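Bench notes, afternoon.
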Amino acid sequence: MKIAKKVCLIGRFAVGKTSLVRQYIENQFSEKYKTTVGVSISTKVIDIDDHSISMILWDIAGFEQEGHYKHYLRGTQGIIWVLDGTEPESFDIFEKVSIPDLDSIPAICLVNKCDLKDQWRLNEDSLQKIRQYVSTIHYSSAKTGENVEDSFNELAKKLLGQ
């Protein structure tokens, strides 16, 4: 059975949303930073058990501008919250973004840049705050690929209700 699911990546400017998508789809990382304007849409088809799921990934530009993102979120069926472990300001994204029916949408949180753990500013208080919004938290690195594919695929399983 073939299924298509819209998944939005939500996070502040420069947390690594685009790099995570590129790593997941192409197994590539670029040191060159390119700002996303509006939204960039990519697709990856994966097979889980007897299902073929098309993950339609909406990489939405940074969420610093209040409200610009709302129309991109319409119809989203999954959410990947992206935080930067080296930037505490990125941890407050949950308070900045208003999503109707958020509790009913399968979601995961990727704390990106785990290859820079010596520079991380994530502590237990921050983690407790994040867990108020999302229960599944993974540490990932778009640069090395650590935990990227497994995390996206875990969300795909949630989207299938597994």
